Amino acid sequence: MENKIVKKDIIKKNTIRKNDEIEIVILEMGEKGQGIAYINDLKIFIDGGVVEDRLIVKIVKISNKYLVGKLLKVIEPSKYRIIEECKYSRVCGGCQYQSIDYKKQLDIKRDLVINALKKEIKIDEKKIMKTIGMDNPYKYRNKAQFPINKNGDDIVIGFYKKASHILVDIDDCILQNPRVKEIVQVFKKYILENNVSIYNSKTMIGVLRYVVIRSSFLTNEDMLIVVTSEDELVTKDILIKNLRSVKSVTSIIQNVNKDLGNKILGTINKTIYGKNTIMDSIGDIKYNISPLSFFQVNSFQTKILYDKVGQYANLTGEEIVFDLYSGIGSIALTIAKNAKKVYGVEIIKEAVDDARENARLNNIKNVEFIVGRAEEVVPNMFNRKSEITADLVIVDPPRKGCDRELLSTIVKMKAKKLIYVSCKPASLARDLKYLVDNGFVVEEVTPVDMFSWTSHVEVVLRLTRKNLLGEISE
Hints:
- The protein is of the alpha/beta class.
- The chain folds into 3 domains: 13-76, CATH 2.40.50.140; 117-133 and 298-465, 3-Layer(aba) Sandwich (Rossmann fold), CATH 3.40.50; 143-282, CATH 2.40.50.1070.
- Helices cover 23% and strands 29% of the residues.
- Helix 7 (374-383) runs parallel beside helix 8 (404-413).
- It is globular.
- The relative contact order is 0.10.
- Mean pLDDT is 92; it is low at 2-11.
- The active site is at residue 423.
- S-adenosyl-L-methionine binds at residues 296, 325, 346, 396.
- InterPro entries: MeTrfase_TrmA_AS, NA-bd_OB-fold, SAM-dependent_MTases_sf, TRAM_dom, U5_MeTrfase_fam.
């Protein structure tokens, strides 16, 4: 399919003007969920475009490297375009792929991984597997975070409109646990009936800032976390009375956040009703989850992801494993039964405390969790006289990827295998370039759809050592 200009003339890059209306065809999807068309090799990004759509768009931004178009009309819809199931899809900024057939989403996510990796390394596309999707890509999230605002006499609890500070009131979400809807309704009623003050980020006056709901698909329990700007919630007894009508709520936590920024949770938690934690599981491993615990929001696909990690690890029971950026220990605990010893390294102390407790909960004794930056702990461990080294290294870093010092140490350690779990293909590709330049070979890459209906994709891949020289190429 070719792009075609509405006025039928051939437009060169320097003749396109802001507010021009042009006819284009979406040829691919961008990493932020926009449709991408081309004119003379210049990319045009269009929110709401679906690959193979023929559209009329208005040019609203021009730069030297790209254009931005506003969708005016769908002339010929793509065969992949579907009717959105979410009534908020046009105003809520949470999902980017509501208009795209689910099977096509999986193809798009594989393409995103391919394109990101090819910018940095040479790789045979056959090594990149099909994206593993969900059998049922709805109602999978075990965590919901809602800002709270006031609009006249109305209370707004929902999500922000894309690229704005405008809060959209949401009474249901196709991604959240079905119990969330009832909990939010009861919570909103409590606010209205008791005139509870809402925090205003501009004036920095008010009490309620966010409501967070953590859900267990194992026990069908829910934890309600009320984020306040003050130490005391004077209406907490009324809140407890109201929420007790929802049988699934077994824990109510007041989280105090006096920070002036947009961070959701503070560091102080007060259990005002019920238990301090709820329990969930990934496969056979159970986890106690506290308000601040990191836990993958899609526990169904996390099992699929960790099964792939286990397959790539192919442990015999004799290996020493380093699990870096280990969080609450979910990967370490999953693979421990097949390893000789697993060391987990994590910077957040509370997460390490959770990991140690989860090891006790599951009676797993061949794991050791260490508090610290992986970039500092691993070099220190390796540089000891004993040279604690690893047969397998697993990294699951934040979106920014791995620190260069850590990658350098991994190369020096001469580990035979490396498994990299990534939530951002671009930073993964950058790190892979360094690893490949220093003797590692990418054996296989598997995208996993952890966040259906969004443009986010998780990736797990296996690397092996081409040689064991340990020579560093900077």
